[in-house]
Design a protein that fits this description.
This protein is mainly alpha-helical. It contains 2 helices and no strands.
């Protein structure tokens, strides 16, 4: 009889330890949550400080190059569209 009580008490003690361990993980998660949320933003800020930003003149030049390319591609696609329309009408 005494052995059974000892076994039951030992089992209860292990169950209490397991609950305490789970609750400590739960508390630890919420305790570290603000740090976990802030960390990616801090890393992003540090990486953005390492970036070599273009000068104003470089930015204007790159923008003009992109716009010129867009106009060129628009003309090319327009010509291809007109040619395919003409071909379809001929068929």
């Amino acid at each position: 009889m005494a052995d059974e009580k000892t076994i039951v008490k030992a089992g209860e003690a292990q169950a209490e330890k397991a609950k305490a361990k789970e609750s400590s993980k739960f508390v630890k998660f919420f305790k570290n949550l603000p740090k976990a949320i802030v960390r990616p933003f801090k890393n992003m800020w540090h990486e953005l400080r390492k970036v070599t930003w273009p000068t104003r003149q470089d930015l204007i030049n790159y923008t003009l190059i992109v716009l010129a390319f867009l106009v060129f591609m628009g003309v090319v696609i327009g010509l291809l569209d007109m040619a395919s329309l003409t071909l379809i009408k001929a068929i």
